[in-house]
Design a protein that fits this description.
Elements: E1 4-20, E2 23-36, E3 41-46, H1 56-65, H2 67-71, H3 76-82, H4 87-104, H5 108-111, E4 120-121, E5 124-126, H6 131-140, E6 146-150, H7 157-167, E7 172-176, H8 183-195, E8 198-202, E9 222-224, E10 243-246, H9 248-251, H10 254-266, E11 270-273, H11 280-290, E12 295-296, E13 314-315, E14 318-319
Parallel strand pairs: 5-6, 6-7, 7-8, 8-9, 9-10, 10-11, 11-12
Antiparallel strand pairs: 1-2, 2-3, 4-14, 13-14
């Protein structure tokens, strides 16, 4: 059956600012794909990411390049060959999953092999700021059980982390340096994280320049983010990372993300389910990866001033499985 494909660029304002080592933003620009077969509709959302040489324009162009194939019925298997891993394929992949669920009446989680989806506790992100700002943000979020502390690698991280810990003394911390640390300060920064009882450190060194992680003691488990996208190269990271952050915008959709999760388990990696800053439509399929995960970071909608309607349900930091009207 032929399909109709439509593409929309949407903007969601962020509550305040989202700040990491690479910069700040005040809005999330997303690309949404809608597939219609007449009676049924499937949707998927992606977040183009400049770090991976993506823009809204390049992602829309990539989706347009396969419009004919998709509208003529190319499915999930064909899509994996039509586009490389990345945001464009993610939006299409998730829309195809959603459409099939609507067509068949079989929930996407059952097609993915789950008997049911369990609620998950998500991290809540504390953006990079001054120590005073990070204390205030951590204090405001101190009742949340899991916080992700963004650091900047500019010499001020010790003060930032100390301030956040004072603000939220009981929370479990993930630290995310977003590639901002150097070989020279790596050992000291990992020791600092151990002192402040950090449970996981994400991507301390730049991707491709992280070999030192295999040669030093890691007093805190280290998670690959920018260093890992799809299954290719995953096994080569085993000596330097303890965990991998699986994001649908990196893998190119739920199809490959599920395959990455299974291979990561086989390689004895811990798994983190992660996200870009997007709406509930982007988070909903990522909950499938959270079923495998030791850590979940699907707080995108919590960072927005306005989410998509209908959206996911968050009870504090507890994220409930998506209802069919949201996705899947």
């Amino acid at each position: 059956m032929s399909l109709s494909l439509s593409i929309a660029v949407e903007t969601f304002p962020i509550a305040g600012r989202f700040v990491i080592s690479r910069g700040a933003k005040t809005e999330a620009r997303v690309v949404t794909v809608t597939l219609r077969d007449g009676a049924h509709v499937g949707r998927g959302e992606c977040v183009p990411y400049a770090r991976y040489d993506e823009s809204v324009e390049s992602v829309v162009s990539a989706i347009e390049s396969v419009r004919a194939a998709i509208e003529q019925g190319a499915g999930l298997s064909a899509l994996q060959k039509l586009l490389p891993p990345g945001a464009a394929r993610n939006a299409l992949d998730c829309a195809l999953w959603d459409l099939e669920a609507k067509r068949s009446g079989v929930a996407a989680f059952k097609t993915a092999g789950f008997d049911a989806l369990k609620p998950v506790v998500t991290a809540f992100t504390i953006s990079v700021g001054s120590p005073a700002e990070m204390y205030e943000a951590a204090d405001s979020a101190s009742e949340r059980p899991l916080l992700k502390i963004k650091l900047a690698g500019d010499g001020g991280d010790a003060a930032r982390l100390a301030a956040a810990r004072v603000g939220a003394p009981k929370a479990t911390f993930i630290v995310d340096a977003n590639e901002a640390w150097s070989e020279e300060d790596l050992a000291a920064n990992l020791a600092l994280c151990a002192r402040f009882k950090v449970a996981l450190v994400e991507q301390p060194l730049p991707a491709g320049k992280d070999a030192l992680l295999a040669r030093i003691e890691r007093p805190v488990p280290v998670c690959a983010d920018e260093s890992v996208h799809a299954r290719e190269g995953l096994s080569a990271l085993r000596d330097r990372y303890d965990a991998v952050n699986i994001k649908l915008d990196k893998t190119g959709g739920l199809t490959e993300a599920l395959a990455v999760a299974r291979e990561a388990q086989a390689l004895d990696f811990s798994i983190m389910a992660g996200c870009m800053v997007g709406s509930s439509l982007a988070m909903a399929p990522a909950i499938f990866i959270a079923q495998y995960a030791a850590f979940t970071d699907l707080d995108g909608p919590l960072l927005l001033a306005r989410d998509r309607e209908p959206g996911l349900t968050y009870e504090g930091s507890l994220l409930l499985p998506p209802r069919p009207e949201v996705w899947g």
